[in-house]
Amino acid sequence: MSRPFKTKGIYITAGINRCAYHCRYCQLTTIKLSKNITMDRFTAIVNRFIEYKHLNQLQDFRVDFWNGYTYDSSLIDFQKELNLHKKVGDWELKILLLGGLLHMEDIILHQWFTERKHIGSEFVAATYLGCKDQHDYWNNKKGNFEFLIKAQKIASNVGLDNVQRLLLTRSSLNHMEELLDTLDSLEIPIKERSAYPFFYSGLARRYEDERVTLSLLENQSKRIQTIYRNDKEKWKSEQEWIEYAHTVSSQSEERSVNLIITDENIDRIESMSCEAILDDLTHRTKRAYAMVPSQEELAEKYADNTSEKIYMFLWDMECLWLDRYLKEHPLQNFERALTHFGR
Ligand code: SF4
Questions:
Q1: CB under 8 Å to 215, separation ≥6 — which residues?
Q2: Tens digit of each residue's pLDDT (9 = 90 or more) over 128-137
Q3: Do residues 334 and 291 make contact, with C-beta atoms less than 8 angstroms apart?
Q4: Do 46 and 226 meet the contact criterion of CB atoms below 8 Å apart?
Q5: Distance (Å) from CA 69 to ligand 1 centroid
Q6: Residue 45 exposure: Cα atoms within 13 Å on the Cβ side
Q7: Three-state secondary-structure class, residue 68
């Protein structure tokens, strides 16, 4: 039944930056917005773990962080966030996500981009689900499609690169040509345009009827097929994941522990040593993994071997299998958020 767990690092999260939207498919629902956690308090905790890693010469120990849904923070806080990314050396450093940003007037948005470019941002990323009204419906925000289009143009004028992410669902595929026409008509340089399905996480778990199949993807026009994300060859149907789950080893879960900082626990975390935090999280994570079936057992008993729906990663496939297991076997005190099933 159990899954042995080994700590490979720490992933520190807190809901500091707020999101102005309520997307119907939001895949980031595990982080709750905080009232009392400032960027300084958050930064201090991340810095302690960076120092812990260096002092103990733990070259392979990862320290990662995520401080909220958007980049809608003050410029001073954004600078602190960038500095932290520089220290950690991760890819988030240069990206500005447009999702979740308050809709702003052009002149304010121009200034917002300019200031952030000045301190190190290099590109913006917009996510589209369908075109025009369909996008606004899914993003639950009237005028959001227009705002993203406008924001990408302004970003380009400011000298930021543009990334476009297009979500592949059954209904968005019906409007994909129209979306591509609209995006192409912007006539701005695009650093990257890629399309991919929902992760099985957060609120998107409610929309399995929107999940695409391989045959549906392969029946699209050449123009649409060329924008599928470049790891598409690794996406698999549920049928294929079952077989894969039996062939890859699941002897032990080697992952970072999740330190989720909240208004309720931040005082306690600040008073604990790094070792004590890691011991506590490792113990609780081991206990959580010990409560759920192995990868093979989930694949054996809780997978649907008739399903041709596509999932991008084994972890999101496993999340669906675990949901089915939990329906039959509800667990008390299962700290799902500490495991990779917690997304
Ligand atoms: S913008 Fe992103 S974080 Fe905000 S509700 Fe939408 S998907 Fe969720």
A1: 308
A2: 999 999 999 9
A3: yes
A4: no
A5: 7
A6: 28
A7: strand
Sheet strands side by side (includes 192-197): 95-97, 123-128, 161-168, 192-197
pTM of the model: 0.93
Angle between helices 39-55 and 274-290 (to 10 degrees): 90
CA of 300 to the centre of ligand 1 (A): 34
Work out the angle between the directed axes of helices 144-158 and 106-118 (0-180°, nearest 10).
50
Locate 149 and state its tokens. Answer: 């289009």
Q: Which residue has the tokens 């309720």?
A: 264
Task: Report the SS3 class of residue 38.
Answer: coil
Tokens, residue 283: 């113990």
Query: Longest Cα pair distance anywhere in the chain, in angstroms?
Result: 58
Q: For tokens 């952030």, name the residue.
A: 116
- Measured distance CA(296)–CA(241) in Å, rounded: 11
Which numbered atom of ligand 1 lies nearest the CA of 202?
8
CA 90 to chain CA mean position, Å:
14
- Residue 29 Cα to ligand 1 midpoint, Å, equals 9
The Cα 192–Cα 122 span in angstroms is 13
Atom of ligand 1 nearest to the CA of 20: 4
Q: Report helix, strand or coil for 225.
A: helix
Distance CA 50, CA 48 (A): 5
Atom of ligand 1 nearest to the CA of 29: 8
Report the pocket of ligand 1 as residue ranges, CB < 6 Å.
19, 21-23, 26, 28, 69, 99-100
CB within 8 Å of 68: residues ≥ 6 apart: 14, 15, 16, 17, 18, 19, 31, 33
Structure tokens that stand for 194 in this block: 């890629």
Q: How does pLDDT run across 22-69, given as a tens digit for each residue?
A: 899 998 776 778 888 999 999 999 999 999 999 999 999 999 998 877
Q: Which of 18, 27, 28 to mutate to test the pocket of ligand 1 (most atoms within 8 A of CB)?
A: 28
- Say if residue 242 is exposed, middle or buried (CB neighbours under 10 Å; 0-12, 13-18, 19+): buried
